[in-house]
Amino acid sequence: MIGLWLLVLTFFISGPAWAAPEIHSWQSEHGVPVYFSNLPEIEMVDIEVTFDAGSARDGSSKGISNLVNQMLLEGTEDLDVEAFNRTLGLTGASISVGSSKDTASISMRSLVDVDKLQPAFNLLRDVISRPRFDSKSIERTKARVAVELEYRAQSPGSRASDRFASLLYDGHPYSSRPLGDEATIQNITEDDVVRYYDTYYVRRNMVIVIVGNVSREKASELANGLGNIIPLGAKAKKLPLVKKQTKAVLDRVQFSSIQSHVRMGGLGVERTHPHYFPLVVGNHALGGNGLVSLLFRRVREERGLAYSAYSYLAPMARSGAFVAGMQTDRSQEEQALQVMGDTLESVAKNGLSEEDIAAAKLNLINGFPLKLDTNAEIVSYISMIAFYGLPTDYLENFQKSIAAVTSEDVGAALRQYLKKDSLLTVIVGPDTPVAD
Amino acid sequence: MGLKVFCLVGVWLLLANSVGAAQKSQEFKFENGLKLIVQEDHRSPVAVVQTWYRVGSSYEYDGITGVSHALEHMMFKGTPTYPDGKFSKIVSSRGGLENAFTSFDYTAYYQQWAATNIEKSFELESDRMKNLTLNSEEFSKEINVVLEERRLRTDDNPQALASEIARATTFQTSPYRYPIIGWEADIKGMSVDDLTDWYVKWYSPNNATLVVVGDVVAEEVYNLAKKHFGKLSRVPLPAQKKRPEVAQKGLKRVSVLSDKARVPFVILSYKAPSLPYALESGGSLAEVYALDVLCEILDGDLSSRLQARLVREKEVASHVFVSYSPTARLETVLTVTAIPRDGVDLETLEKYLIEEINLLSVNPPTDEELERVKTQVAASRVYSQDSMASQATMIGSFDSVGLDWRLKDTYLQEINAVSSAGIVAAAQKHLRKEALTITYLMPEQDL
Questions:
Q1: Which residues of chain B from 265 to 304 reach within 8 Å of chain A, CB to CB?
Q2: Which residue has the higher pLDDT, B73 or B444?
Q3: What's the angle, vertex CA B44, arms to CA B38 and CA B48, rounded to 5?
Q4: CA distances from residue A176 to A61, A66, A138, A415 in whole angstroms, order as listed
C-alpha cells in the first residue's frame, strides 16, 4: 500500500508539465455569463450557447424541449431551411444542437478567417435569436422524433435506461425521457413551440462558451453579438428536489430480446455536494475505470458473463443517478444478477479495498490531462462549469480534489448511496431463455 | 513463442518527411520489417501509441470467421512477464486509456497517456507481440464474452443484423461477406488452437506498424522503438490466395423479417472500387475520389440532395445515410440506407432513391454544390487536427491497407481536382442496377 501511495506522489510531482486550460469569465454587456479559453494552436473556434431549457422543463408536453431544440436548425426568419443549409455549407462551419434533462444547447465550430467566421457567426446568431418555426418543419421534425422513439422502443438497453429513470425519479421532471412519447409529441402545437422558446431561450437562462484561436477582445465582441439579441426574460425556477427511494424495488419488463439488460442503483448527487468527489472515486473503482474496475473483473473477466459491466455517476442540477449496468444471455441472468448484487452489497457494507481506491485515484489524477487534450473536450467541460456555476478553477483543482479523498470518505459515501434496502433494480429481457 | 533473436537493427529506409498543416510527420522502417510512423503534436504533454497488425476479418475463411476479433480479446490476457491483468493495471495507474479494435482489414491496439510513457507502451506491446499466454481456461470464459458481444451488437439489434445480411448478400466470393465479429456458429466452434495458429501466423514485426502521435521527438521515439522491438525477429507471413469478388450479373434482393424490428429500412449496396483496389487492378484513382465527392453531394450535410429532396421536399424518408469507404483493402461497397416516413412503403422509397441517383446524370452537380463540398473538406482537415487519436487512426488505417499515409495530407488536392463530369461518369459506371443489392428490413408486425 505504501508503494501505491508513493506512486501517487511520484506521478503527481514529477509528472509531465500539464496545466489546465486557463478560463476567463465575465458578463457580456447585456449580463450574460461568458466563459472563454484562448487556444491558439488550431485555426478554429468553438462557440457553445447553453440554455436552462432541458427536458426537465417539458411540463405535460413531454418531448417539447428536444423538439424546440431540433427546430432551431430548420431555418431562420430571413432564410428558409433550404437557403439556410446552403448558406451554412459554404462557410465550412458546422452548427449543431443538443439537449439533455437539464440543458438545451447550440454549438458552432468554424474556421477563424474573417470571411468564414463572420457569415457563420451571423447564422448562429439568427439560429438562436430568430428561428423560423414553420408548421411544415414542425410536423416533419415530429415525424422524425416518432421514428427515433420507435427505434428506442426496439432497443432493450434503452428500454432499461428509460424504465430505470422513470422509477427512480417517479413524480419528478427527470422521470421522463427527453424524446417524449408518441402521443405527447403529436399534441404539441406551433403555439406550444413558440411559447416554450419564448419562455426558456432567454438571457437569464443563458451561458456562452468560446474556445479557440480568437483573442479575448474578439470573444467579447462575439459574446456581445449573441447576448444583445435575446430578450432578458425570466430565470427558470429551480427544479424540485428529488424524493429518495425508501425501499428496495425489483422491476422486470418482458421483452423479445435474447439478452437481459440490467440496471441497478439509486440516486447520486450534484457536483457541488460534499459527497461528490468521494463518489467519483468510488464509482471509478467500482465500475467506471474500464478494464480494471471491480464490476468488470467480477462479471466479465472472472466469469465471462457479459460484454460490458460498468457503473456511472451522472450528476445533474438535482440529484443525478449512480447506476451499475450489464447485459447477459437470459440463461445466465440469475447468476449475473447475483454477482452484481453481491458486489454492490459488499461494497456498500465494507467499502472498497485500499488497493482499488488507490488505483482509481491514480487513474483519475494521472488521466485528467487526457480528458482535456482536445478543444472539443475543453468546450464541453467549460460548458458544464458555466451552466452549473462551478468555480473557474474547477479544472485546475480537480486532481487535488481527488487526491484529498480518503478511503473513509469513499466508504461512507458508498454506504449511503448503494444502500441495499433502497436499491432499484430493473431487468428488461425475455421471460425464459431463447433457444438457439 | 518466446523466441528472442537479437539482431542489429538500423534505419533501413527513411522516407521523406511530410509536413502537414501543423504537424511534422516521419516514417522509419526497421530491419525486421516493423514500420514506425511518428507525428509530432506538442499541444498537450500526451501521446497516443497505436500498434497495427495487417490482419482482420477479410483475411479469414469459412469456419474460423471472427478469429481475428477473438484474438484481439485474448491479447488482454497477459504474458509470462505481465500476467493477470498487470498490463491494464500499469496503464490505468499511469492515467492511461487503452483499448483495441478489429476491422475488416486490420487489428489495432492503443494506449493514450502522458508522452513520458511511450517507452512503457513499447515494452508492453513488444512483449505481447510474441509472448501472449493463450490457455483454454481463459479462452473458454472470453469466448462467452464475445458471444455476449455478438448478441448485444447484432442479434438483438435488427438494423445491425439486416446490415450483416446485406453485406453477406452483396459479396459472393470476397471475404468482405464475413462479419468482423464472426458467424455465431464459428464463434461457438472456435478453439484456443485456432487462435494460437492465427497469432503465430500474423503477429510479427514484419506485419505491424507502430503509429505515435503526440508530444514526442521523432528520433527519440525511433530509438525507444528500436530498443524494444528491434530484438524481435521477422517471421515469414502465410501466402494468401486471392479471393476477388466475382462480377455481379444482375440485381440481388434480400428481405430480412424481424419480430424485434419496429423501424423498417432499405439499403442500396453498390459494388465500388477503393483506392487500394484501383491501384491493384489498374483502375482509376480519380474515379474513387469522384465517388467520394458524389457521396457528399448526396448526403454530405443538410443541404445535400437526399436530405433536401427526399427528407424535406418529398417527405418520403425520415432519415438517410450514405456510406463509402475509399480506403478499404479490397473492392468495396457504397451504401445508401433510408428509413421511410410513416405511411411510405419500402418499394416507394426505393423508387425515389434510385430516381435521385439516376438524376445525377441528368442534373450533374452544380458549381455551387462542388464548392460546398470542397469548402467543407478543407475545413474538416483543419478540424481534424483537434484529435491526436483520430490523426493516428487515419495514419494507421491508410498504412494498413497498403496506402501511403501521406494521403491524409494530399487528399484535399485530389478532392479539389474532382469535376462535375467526373462524378457523372463515376456514377454511370458504378451506380448501376447490375451491381446493386437491395435489402429490406421488414418488421414482422407489418407483414
A1: 300-303
A2: B73
A3: 40
A4: 11, 12, 21, 28
Instruction: Write down all domains in chain A, each with its CATH number in brackets.
Output: 24-227 (3.30.830.10), 249-429 (3.30.830.10)
CATH code of residue B377:
3.30.830.10
How confident is the model at residue A65, as a pLDDT? 98
**A257-274 per-position pLDDT tens digit:** 999 999 999 999 999 999
Q: End of a domain among B195, B229, B263?
A: B229
Say how many residues make up chain B: 447
Please compute the mean of the pLDDT values over residues A32-54 and round it to a whole number.
97
Residues A139, A62 contacting (CB under 8 angstroms): no
CA distance A362 to chain B (A): 5
pLDDT tens per residue, range A2-36: 333 333 333 343 345 688 999 999 999 999 999 99
Exposure string (b/e) for A213-222, b if CB count within 10 Å is 16 or more? bbeeebbbeb
Q: Residue B383 domain-assigned?
A: yes
Q: Examine the domain organization and report whether B291 and B191 are in the same domain.
A: no
Interface test with A, best of B72, B260, B376, B386 (most A CBs within 10 A): B386
Tell me if chain A has a CB within 8 Å of the CB of B136. Answer: no
Task: Give the per-residue pLDDT at A18.
Answer: 82
- Residue A257 touches partner B, C-beta closer than 8 Å: yes
Same domain for B222 and B309, yes or no, is: no
Q: Is the pLDDT of residue A109 over 80?
A: yes
**Structural domain harbouring B322:** 252-446
Q: Is residue B23 part of a domain?
A: yes
Whether chain A has a CB inside 8 Å of the CB on B131: the answer is no
The answer, for A299 touching chain B at a CB cutoff of 8 Å, is: no
pLDDT confidence band for A436 (50 / 70 / 90): low
Of A17, A140, A157, the CB nearest to B312: A140
Mean of pLDDT over chain A: 94
| In a domain? residue B245 | no
Mean pLDDT value across residues B6-20: 30
Which residue is associated with the grid cell 444471455? Answer: A329
Collect all residues with Cβ–Cβ distance below 8 Å to B47 and sequence separation of at least 6: B112, B113, B114, B115, B117, B118, B212, B213, B214, B215, B216, B388
A367: nearest CA in chain B? Answer: B95
pLDDT value of position B17: 34
> Does residue B208 share a domain with residue B347?
no
- The pLDDT tens digits of the residues spanning A381-391 come to 999 999 999 99
CB burial class (10 A; 0-12, 13-18, 19+) of residue B313?
A: exposed
Q: B110, B145, B265: which to substitute to probe chain A, counting the most A Cβ within 10 Å?
A: B145
C-alpha cell at A152: 428506442
Strand residues in B5-151 grouped as ranges (E): 13-14, 18-19, 24-29, 35-40, 46-53, 97-102, 107-114
Within a domain: residue B2?
no
β-sheet bridge partners, residue A266: A322
Inter-chain CB proximity B113 and A258 less than 8 Å: no
B 392-431 residues inside an 8 A Cβ radius of A: none
Which sign does the torsion angle of CA A223, A226, A229, A230 carry?
A: negative
Which A residues, 59 through 78, put their C-beta within 8 Å of a C-beta on chain B?
73
Residue B343 has pLDDT above 50, yes or no: yes
Condensed to tens digits (0 to 9), the pLDDT of residues B350-406 reads 999 999 999 999 999 999 999 999 999 999 999 999 999 999 999 999 999 999 999
Number of domains in chain B: 2
d(CA B316, CA B306): 10
Contact B145 A307 (CB under 8 A): yes
B155-199: pLDDT as tens digits: 999 999 999 999 999 999 999 999 999 999 999 999 999 999 999
Which of A373, A378, A381, A434 to mutate against chain B (most B CBs within 10 Å)? Answer: A373
Is the whole-model pTM more than 0.90?
yes
- Does pLDDT of B19 surpass 80? no
